[in-house]
Amino acid sequence: MTRLNARSRLALPPRVRLWLGLLVALALGYLVALAQNAVVRPPLVVGQDAVPPAGQAPGVIATLEHEGGAFIDIRPAGEVKTLLVYYPGGFVRPQAYEWLGRALAADGVQTVIPVFPLDLAVTGVGRADALIKKFGAGRMVVIAGHSLGGAMAAQYATDHTAQLNGMILMGAYPAGNVSLKGAALPVLSLLAERDGVAASADVRDGLNRLPDSARLTVIPGAVHSFFGRYGSQKGDGLPTVTRAAAEVDILKAVRAFLRQLPAP
C-alpha cells in the first residue's frame, strides 16, 4: 500500500508530461544543432572573397596544399623574403584571412594558413613546425593569429622563439599561463577600438606577458570581426568605420612592423 501511494504521488498529469517532453525535445534539438555547427564546417573555397582593399599585386597565387595537414598557401610572383604563418580565430574558416596574405604578397611575403580540425587552433598548436621547416629556410619567419588563433600562436612562440623573427597578435593575447616576458622576440599586438569579443583591458593586460618591446597599435573604429572576412560575430561591438577602412589600417600596421624586423 505504501508503494502504491508513493507512485501515485510521483505520477504527473498528462498535460505536464506533454510539456516536459516538449522541453526535453527542444533542449536536445538545440544541443544537436550546436554540435552540427561545430562539426559540419562551411566549405573551404580559396579566392572567393580575398581581393585586398587596394587591389592585388599581379601574379599572386593562392592554393590549397598539404604539409602536416591542409593549409592555404599564398605566394607572391617574385622573391619570397618573409614567411607568415597565420592561425585563424576559433570556428573561423581559414580563407577569411586570405585577403591579408594576398595584400602582403606585394611585399614579398608568403602567407600560409593552416586548416585546423573544427577550425580550432587549439587542436594543433604545433602546426607551424612543418610549415616553417618546409618554407622558412633563409627567410624571416613570423607567426600570427587572430583571437583564439593568436593565443595559440603565442603558446607556440614560447617554445620556438629561436625559429621566429616576430609575432603578430590580432584581437588576441597570451593565455594566463603563457608568458614571453624576457624573450628577444619582436611582437605587434593589434587592438580593434570597438572590439566586443577581445576586451581592451584583456588585450592590454596581455602585454604584461609579452616582451617589454611589444608594440600595441589600436585600429580606430574597428571591431573583432574586421580582422577576418567571416561576417558579423555575436557579442562584438559596433564599428564606426567600414571594413575596408579598417583593413587599410591593419595592413599599414602589419607592413610597418614587418619592415623593421632585423634580417635573419
TrEMBL record:
The leader peptide range reads none
Keyword hit for Transcription regulation: no
Question: What GO MF terms are annotated?
Answer: hydrolase activity
Q: Where is the Alpha/beta hydrolase fold-5 domain?
A: 84-244
Keyword list, A-Z? Hydrolase
Q: Which InterPro entries match?
A: AB_hydrolase_5, AB_hydrolase_fold
Q: What is this protein called?
A: Alpha/beta hydrolase
Which chain regions cross the lipid bilayer? none
Hydrolase among keywords: yes
